[in-house]
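Teaching assistant's notes for section 4

Start the section by putting this record on the projector. Ask students to predict, before seeing the second block, whether Trk system potassium uptake protein TrkA will look compact or extended. Collect guesses on the board.
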Amino acid sequence: MRVSIAGAGAVGRSIATELLENGHEVLLIDKAPTAISVERVPMAEWLLADACEITSLDEAALQRCNVVIAATGDDKVNLVVSLLAKTEYGVPRVVARVNNPKNEWLFNESWGVDVAVSTPRLMSALVEEAVSVGDLVRLLRFSHGDANLVELTLPPESALAGIRVGDVAWPADTSLVTIIRGTRVLTPSPEESLEAGDELLFVAAQAREEQLEDLLSVRRSPEDG
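Reveal the predicted structure now:
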């Protein structure tokens, strides 16, 4: 997979290093000469250019990329890069970094963004995820299709504890993608039974989140034990 990353700061270089270790081709783009540190990520391609300029993106051959990541520290730049990547070059997957949570509402398909990653929001979500049982926590927003990656830890009193995945009437526009049980990561087959304490990860439409939370948090009656 070929990936172009706009922004060769600490965030961009870290992403590049991870992707290279996983066998992908990576091009780092930055307009600041001081950011071009080839020795820090020697396996990557480097381009000294303004990623907001069409001529620069032509030089980067963005049309050959499977993914573009807008990872600069400037939200305006990230939005422009995302829009150009999607509309001018037809890049299948555009991921954008959100620096200021107040700008998060802009990072959607109208600006060419498929996935918006807000570091402050993600850190907050991870804190909530670590301490919340029975509450739905939004981990990641997928701009395209208005879907989110959400997590809920099944409380002991949930009526779904002990019920098979295939026997649950899940809300429309939701999909259970992973069950984390202790140190194990389980594929949620229809025969798999849910257990109290399971961390359940869903991709769900935002409009269905409340319904999903109500379903998972519903209490057992005393006679159920």
